[in-house]
Amino acid sequence: MRRYVHEAVVDTPPDKLWRAIVDLRRWPEWDAGLEPRGGPAVRMSVEGMEPPSRFVDLAHLPLANMRGLQAQDAGAQTEASVRFAACLS
């Protein structure tokens, strides 16, 4: 199984990032690539939530899963990561 990971430290207060992430209906306002025009519908689920420090979502894509994570690091930095894992056997 192939895995691709992108991680970044986000320069914003964790509570502000938390409010943006849990407001799912407004995601397209700050993520222009969220709506794949003409692409297949994508089922999303929330895997974990611990306000305001941790939020994990999972996009069930054709042939792959994409997991997004927002986690606060000891009250200082906030890490945001996206992981792709191919679902081929």
pLDDT < 50 runs, ≥5 residues? none
Q: How many separate helices? A: 2
**Share of residues in strands:** over 45%
Write down the CATH class. Alpha Beta
How does the helix and strand content classify structurally? mainly beta
**Which oligomeric state applies?**
single chain
Indicate the percent of residues in helices.
10-25%
C-alpha-based Rg, rounded: 14 Å
Strand order of the largest sheet: 1-5-4-3-2
What separation lies between the terminal Cα atoms? 8 Å
The biggest beta sheet reads:
5 strands, antiparallel
CATH architecture: 2-Layer Sandwich
CATH homologous superfamily annotation: START domain
User: What's the pLDDT, averaged over the residues?
Assistant: 76
Provide the number of structural domains. Answer: 1
Kindly describe this structure.
The protein is mainly beta and 89 residues long. It has a single domain (3-26, 42-86), classed as Alpha-D-Glucose-1,6-Bisphosphate, Chain A, domain 4 (2-Layer Sandwich), CATH 3.30.530.20. Helix content is 15%, strand content 49%. It is built from 2 helices and 5 strands. A 5-stranded antiparallel sheet has the order 1-5-4-3-2, with helices on one face. The radius of gyration is 14 Å and the shape is globular. The mean pLDDT is 76.
